[in-house]
Design brief:
- The chain is 85% helix and 0% strand.
- By secondary structure, the chain is mostly helical.
């Protein structure tokens, strides 16, 4: 394994770890938002997902904690999508490197 492949493997591994950590953080925030909805006795459609669901919970509950969570979730989405694109991009680069190595 050459130096380029080693550097690539390290960068890809770090990107995957950051992406997984972001996913865990997002799910944790959405779980906290769901707990707020449950405490208030709110019943929502199961078809609502992600930020739309969080917005619906906040509009129905209207508490300061739900607003704070909604702000965190909305701030996280662009960074989350950027990390996803980085991981996919690095995966494609790795695939190209492997194919040209063959």
């Amino acid at each position: 394994m050459g130096l380029l492949e080693m550097i690539y493997a390290v960068i890809f591994s770090v990107a995957v770890v950051i992406y997984v950590a972001s996913t865990v953080q997002y799910r944790r925030l959405m779980g906290a938002m769901e707990k707020i909805a449950q405490r208030s006795g709110l019943r929502l459609e199961e078809s609502l997902q992600g930020v739309k669901r969080a917005r619906e919970i906040h509009s129905a509950v209207g508490s300061a904690s739900s607003k704070q969570l909604l702000d965190k979730i909305e701030a996280m989405i662009p960074a989350f999508m950027l990390r996803f694109r980085v991981v996919v991009g690095l995966g494609v680069v790795g695939l190209v490197l492997v194919l040209f190595k063959m």
